[in-house]
Design a protein that fits this description.
Four copies of one chain form a homotetramer. Chain A has 284 residues and is mainly alpha-helical. The first copy, chain A, has helices at 2-11, 23-31, 40-46, 58-66, 89-101, 115-119, 131-144, 156-184, 189-196, 204-213, 224-241, 246-260, 271-278; strands spanning 17-18, 35-36, 50-53, 80-83, 105-108, 111-112, 123-128, 145-152. The longest helix of chain A is centred in the middle third of the chain and has 29 residues, at 156-184.
Chain lengths: 284, 284, 284, 284
């Protein structure tokens, strides 16, 4: 996603200075015109006011802000940080005062959308932060998005993103349990997918993934280990705020098993096959 | 649903002779032109070859076939029974030989669709049974449906219906957990519903139920006690065929709690509010 | 267990005529003095009034009663069948009328206890059936048990056994989750087991299995595929009678995964290691 | 528990200076000889080297250390803090550096045991912290405990306590599901409790709570809202460290429902009755 955002911004005439902890990925970005920085602090030093970050998990984000050579080790007075990762709300609430203490501003702005929609500037941004900071970010966010919704204070964007991904993970696991139920009763997967594609729960994700669900090769849009991390975050956030989430916990169990069995780098749609093949077996 | 089917068949020029265990409902059907029979056997006696049944649960269906004054207590040689309830596959597999031993034929043909789509003949039939029996049923089913899919032998239609309803129940409970997660982080329900309506999991059911989810009064399309019964059937069927279904079990827990708390007659969409109000609470 | 019961009965001076679908097992029993019958019916034909059965699952029991060469294919008038398997209550309620229609009587009498306790006549029998049939069985059951409890009508013994095994499976999975939780926080398994052995939940099973839990080889007292079958039965029974069982469903998920991954023949205590190794993984 | 610890220490000849956020409780402690302090800082100021804290949850503990008039707002150089609450490991790991930065030392030392065992100095301490700090705490801890186990660095004691309470909560919910399963099949609760009291999972907690489980009034040893908080902590800790815990999540669901329905102040054993009465219902 980071690369697609850089490409989109470049198309829109923005010069991007960037850093990636994966050196090979950074090299490829350089070939596409990105100026490379030595570390996060160097990105912030060179930026003319706005820094976007998007990585996989909470620990990594803490580290690029507060770790060795992190953003906040330099002079960031007046800067605006647009944090686009999918994190726990408490991480946003914890980082914001540190950023403000350094004289800068932080919003969380995770997005809904695919790589192609990022390339076309059609993402959907769910933003948490102070209203004036969200307004300050609009000029940049509008180059990337079709819609910007201000959900509330810092962390509110992350909360919305976790809620949305919870729904996606649940839909995939529900499909897994439906197909496992049906195939053990002798139904064909192909017919089941045809019917489910016409059910009131049919949705855009299912339409886009039919091929994969039928066993054909397909692009990876999001991998299982990342979706599992999002569900771990959702369940932990729910537990900390006082609600037991029985469906989410069930989904997390299946995702954790898939990752533990070595399926973490596969597309999230492969959870359906994993569940059928690895989480049950007919009685004799 | 039974009433809508009767009305549709009447519109299509079919004389319907019927029976309902709810006397008041039967009286209303009589006012709309249905000839009333004294019991299931009298329906079969008076029918000219085809009998449709649709009621709520497995025990009731066994009883209208095999109980006192049930279909099979009369002479049903040559009859075709089209069973449209949402049942466990094993019920279909258990009834079929009894029907055949009586010289008649049975198919299971549960449907996807709403009351209005039944009135318009736009249901979606998922059929289990022998191919020739399914073919024999087409003339009648075509008056009611936009699509007829033959899923496999007796019970296969029920298996597909349970798989589809599992997905619907999971979607509702996922929405419940998403909204509980978000509102405890301070998000507004209205905004969350707006975002979820634009997510890759957005679907026809969600679009139709936005008003209800926002707390406005709405029609009941399916009640919680019936959806719970379907999930009990799905979990039992999965358990008997050898798969633990962690998501479905989580959904069933929430549905069972809602019914036990007296919400059984409310619309399935109300599970979202039930979960937020009755299944968790912020820590101090 | 079947072999231990035969040995105990032989010690008590009872001549046992038996059959086993595993020919090798039957041969070993013959070497220990059991008279071999060609099939279940031949057992009933040769018995002088009482037939004991104990096998793994519902389908098998239906088959030895009602299948080809099953008990009920012969003349069983006046016989008493003591069925000691761990089954679903509905199986007991379904078989009893068939046995009675053949002029015989049936009780379900599953037991708590280990192989050594069977050898010593120290089992604990939970019995379902008519009071007079239970009384008729006492002479035989007393040779095998330290206690006989009449739980209710046919199926009640099975219900109690499922309830007891549910607790055992839950304890093992709770131990699995405790140890996974602790070891990911850096605790040593050895110390955790020491503390848990002193906690208010410490019990006889845990004391007997400490070695296994610490990774040392140990005898198999019950295998994972059998405990999984019992949990499938418990969850199906609960679903059919109207309760969602969230803990049991979670346990079943772990057991199903273990069996699907090839751990079905290992001791039930190995679920603890399976869960730690195959159902989760630290985040980066 | 705090009061029992104060009483025990007083019996052992220790002068206790204390503070409680519940003024009435503090007044009663004063009547029993405790010197009252105005706030946590005043406790630390007056103490001669060792401060014990035990309260309900993570936020409260953070507040008595770092909040207004908290321990760390005074001069605590050289002090040893023995924190005995049941918290998340991350809370211990987060507080320790703050305490050390103030020149003091912190260990976490939650305990297993009841009010009477505290009065008799028979608690079981699970300790996290540096070895020399644990050694420094022994003189005080030995007055309260029958055993002290050093589990690892800061937070390790909390991790062990959560793992132990997870097992207790699981046992109670398993009992709830067993009794719900059995009673819906017609068994009597009294007989089921008799059998379960003789099963391999029978334990000290069950023996102590038989009266309560049979519906008789009994003392409250731990309340449902506190056990729920512990399970929220366990599930959140597991989620943050990368494991989905299906059984724990199921238990948490039942506990959360009980608290949301107003049962939070009842004894944890009442979860069994709550589940039977409020989480399921027979089908018609």
């Amino acid at each position: 996603m980071g690369r697609a955002i850089q490409a989109r911004l470049a198309d829109q005439g923005v010069d991007v200075i960037g850093w990636d902890r994966d050196t090979a990925a950074m090299q490829r970005a350089a070939e596409r015109g990105m100026t490379i920085a030595a570390h996060p602090r160097a990105v912030a030093d060179a930026a003319d006011g706005t820094v976007i970050s998007i990585i996989t998990e909470d620990g990594g984000v803490r580290s690029i802000f507060r770790g060795k050579d992190g953003f906040l080790t330099g002079d960031v007075r007046g800067m605006l940080f647009i944090e686009m990762s999918t994190l726990q709300p408490m991480t946003g609430r914890e980082l914001a005062p540190a950023v403000e203490a350094a004289g800068a501003r932080l919003i969380d702005s995770p997005v809904l959308g695919t790589i192609p929609s990022a390339r076309d500037g059609k993402l959907y941004a769910m933003v948490g932060g102070k209203a004036q900071d969200v307004d300050a970010a609009r000029a940049v966010l509008e180059k990337l998005t079709r819609k910007i919704v201000h959900m509330g204070p810092n962390g509110a964007g992350y909360a919305m993103k976790l809620a949305a991904n919870l729904g996606l993970a649940a839909f995939i696991q529900a499909t897994a349990e439906s197909l496992a139920l049906g195939t053990r009763e002798g139904l064909s997967i192909q017919q089941m997918i045809e019917v489910l594609g016409d059910a009131p729960t049919a949705n855009g994700w299912f339409a886009a993934k039919k091929k994969l669900l039928l066993g054909e090769p397909d692009d990876i849009t999001l991998d299982l280990k990342t979706l599992r991390k999002d569900m771990l975050s959702a369940v932990a956030t729910g537990a900390l705020s006082g609600t037991g989430m029985p469906l989410s916990a069930g989904v997390l169990t299946a995702l954790s098993a898939a990752v533990a069995q070595g399926w973490g780098d596969k597309d999230i749609g492969e959870l359906v096959r994993f569940f059928r093949e690895h989480m049950g077996q007919k009685l004799d």
